[in-house]
Structures are given as C-alpha cells and as structure tokens.
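Case study 2.
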Amino acid sequence: MTPEALPRFRAENFRNMLRHGLITVVFCCLIASALAISGSGSWASQMVYSLSIGTISWLVIDTGRLLLSGHKEVLWPHGFWGYGLVALGVTVGFLVGNAIGDAFVGAPPLEFLSFAAHKTMSTIVITLVATVGMCFFFFSLGKSKHMQSQLDLAQRNATEARLKLLETQLEPHMLFNTLANLRVLITLDPPRAVAMLDRLNSYLRMTLSGSRALAHPLSAEFDRLGDYLELMSVRMGERLRYTLDLPDELRDVPVPPLLLQPLVENSIRHGLEPKVEGGEITVRARRNGERLVIEVNDTGVGLDAAAPSPEGGSGGFGLEQVRERLATVFGTQSEMRLASAPAGGTCATLSFPLPAAA
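Prediction:
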C-alpha cells in the first residue's frame, strides 16, 4: 500500500487525535486556573469557558486535518488549507465555546460582544495565542515523528542492503570452495564426485528457490546446514560425523540466513580436514535466559594448529562475515567467541537476544 492510499481514520490516527485531545484539556485547565487566580472570574466558570473553546477548536482542527490529509504520511494540509483550517478552528471554538460558557453561567448568548473593547480583545488574544500555540506544538510533534519514521526506514533499508551484500559475498565463497573440492574428487573418485555433484545440485536448488528474506526460522538454518554437511560427507566419507541439536521451542526463532554455515566451513577446513582420522562437528542451540546461544563444536586439530595460512585462509573471511552480520542485526547486544574446546578441537559460540515473543 502506497502512502497516498493510507486510510484516513486508521487506528494510529485516532490514537494521535485522542492524545492531542488529552494534551489540549490539560492546557485548557492550566489557562483556566491562571485566569481564576488573576481574578478574571470563578474557577468553575473559567474552566467551562476554557474547556469549551479549547476542545471545540481541537475537534474542528484535528478532524479537519484528517479529512484533508489523513490518507498521507504527513498529517497536515499544506499552504492555504493549513492556515484556513486553523482560522476556522479558532473562530468556531471561540464562538461556540463562549456560547456554552454563557449558558453555564446564565448569561445572555454571546455576552462577550457587549464587553468593553479591551476585555473582548483580551479574550480573543488568549484564544488565538493558545490555539495557534497548540497547533504549532502538535505540528512540530507530528513533523518530528514523521522525520524519525523516515530515519528509521532509511536505517532499515541500509541494514537490509548490508545484509544482502554480506550474503552475496558468502554464497559464492561457499560455492567456490565446493567446486574446488569437487575438482579434486573427480580425479580421485569419480563415483563420489557424481554423488557430490548431485548433492550440490540439490543444495543450490533449495537455496535459489528460497526467498531472499533478511531472516528465516532457525529450523531453516539447521536444515540448510544439514544439506551442506551431507554435501561435505560425500567428499570426506567416514572422516566427517555431525550432530545437529535444535530444541523444538527454538525452531521458529528468526535468524539471518547463512549465519552458521561459515562456522561449520571453518571447522571442516581448518579443524577436521588437517586431521587424518577426521572428527565430529556438533551444532547445538539453547536458551540462556532471554538470549539465544548457538555453539559449533568440532574435535579437530584445535585453534593453534588450525590457524589459516596466508594463501589459503578462508576461515578468517567466514568468521569476519558472521561477526558483521551479527553486528548489523543485533549491534552491541550480540557476541561471538572462538575458544579451544576442553576435550580438544574448537568451540565457536554465538549469543544474541531472543525476540520478545520467543
């Protein structure tokens, strides 16, 4: 739905209108109290006059602005229409409000017309200044809110663009590594190379058919990880064993796509491949209070031995991409740690806040 097609009297507009009404009532009470203290009349009569003039002006102006511009993002008419609406609100509020006040105190209708010129002028000035002041306050408040929403939208767009850029960097990275492995396997073991090619075809079909969403359920991330590990199992055979542990209550938690695969790639390339007998990778998700914790453990050669070489170190790239993706989505609330596992190997730990509904 485009901004020009927004419904005029949507819930958000009604909430803003009621908020303006409450602020107007408070402001009218303050004016009435000030006039009563100054000796301009009793507190009750001043309260009725002030509330009548203020609330009627508010109803005319706030209803008018929604009728004129409620279908747009900026809820205030431009140019002549805006000034005319304020003038109409002041006039109607002043005349009808005074008539209500006169009826309350038992005075003849529109008694202010028989007042001295200075008294009539002071009443008009108070009404005009108060109404225009409130309109300016509400206009500034609405403009500030609109600018903040535009800023939030720009930040979301920037975040989306950054995440898409990071994902486009990660996918070719994984594909090139797989194709390099496939090239070696074609020479050494053609049947396994064919099986690996079939796995790669299936993996790419699922990846390309999926939407380019900025987040997907954690279960989808684990499913995609399972496909990748099966692909790697074709090449490594019994040297690669893996376990994926995802509790049911965490399956629907949204996470950025391709968040875990670089960690698993790093474990295979720098942990299990250099080890003659291979090893095991365990990916486990758990809840720690209001945070999601995901651990990628491997039984490979460990951090010191797995330090990437200058010419072939793709692990640093993958880990840096994961850090950037976490920072882009969760900011300083995210954490990534890489440490030696107590029983040997490496443990990569991700931690970030769970959504409020999780």
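The helical segments are 11-37, 43-69, 80-105, 117-188, 190-209, 218-236, 261-272, 315-330.
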